[in-house]
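FORM 7B: Structural annotation worksheet

SECTION A. Query
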Amino acid sequence: MSKAIGIIPARWSSLRFPGKPLHLIAGKPLLRHVWERCQRAEKLETVIIATDDMRIANAAFDWGAEVALTSPKHQSGTDRIAEVARKAKKFAFVLNIQGDEPLVDPLLLDQLVRKLRSDRSIEIVTAAHAFQNSDQAASPHQVKVVIDLKGDALYFSRAPIPYPRHYPSAIRYLRHQGIYGFRRETLLRFVKWEPSALEQAEALEQLRALENGVKVHVLVTKHGLPGVDTPEDARALEQKLARAKRTGVAR
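SECTION B. Predicted structure
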């Protein structure tokens, strides 16, 4: 059994951007952009939108998406996808795909699946890319990751890591991209663990895996893709898509 499923958790409530999944960008809901990109991934057997909100569910049904209605009590997207994965027993691998990254790369999704299939020692795989501007690494809103020589995560932090004590120009800061591939059994174990001390300190869920001894492999990509956290981000993305349409170039 080596089938892979992509699950996109989506919720309506957001402090900075209520109703974000259905916000129109270039004439389509943000969530639909994500779903359509996922449909282009060759290694995913199916893609499911997981939500507890009927506004999102009905909209997704209308454009032909498969939808799973989940509990409104979930504290995180990982908890939400685990509810779906618990019933999806024929899938060995589960991709947690962020619903606010409308330019998610289908090739990256395929890479994540291939990595899980090729190395049984890897239980979770994610992605990162180098900051174009190292000054951006100072922002606590940008999550950084440090990896070992094999590409496995040593630590994730909101602080700039590693600290450049002697040679600041030689440091390459890696920005973590919020996308994960899980072995199904690892995902189901993960959501049973209590939030760890490091996770609570940094407010980074992936630290729970490291504290419990789970290997998290990091694929380092050349480029990152913009997410949509605020209405301002949505407007900037719409302008980018409009420029790409005019020039015939889009990522």
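SECTION C. Observations
Residues 231-247 form the longest helix (17 residues). The helical segments are 30-39, 54-62, 77-87, 106-118, 184-190, 197-202, 206-211, 231-247.

SECTION D. Sign-off
Analyst initials: ____
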